[in-house]
Specification:
There is one protein chain. 94% of the residues lie in helices and 0% in strands. It has helices spanning 2-22, 24-53. α1 (2-22) packs across α2 (24-53). By secondary structure, the chain is mainly alpha-helical.
Length: 54
């Protein structure tokens, strides 16, 4: 099981590097979308906690 996890992790790393090298503009767009998603999720959690306190 541990060996399969390593293989999948290395494959994912190679894929990410390949994507960044072949189309850096698209990779930058994807990173931006990811950060926007994280930001809106954190904002939602903050609003939920605020409504619990009130």
């Amino acid at each position: 099981m541990g060996q399969a996890k390593k293989i999948v992790l290395y494959g994912l790393a190679v894929f990410i590097l390949y994507t960044i090298i072949t189309s850096p503009d698209r990779a930058a767009d994807l990173v931006g979308v990811g950060f926007e998603g994280i930001s809106s999720a954190a904002q939602g959690v903050g609003q939920f906690m605020t409504s619990l306190v009130n």
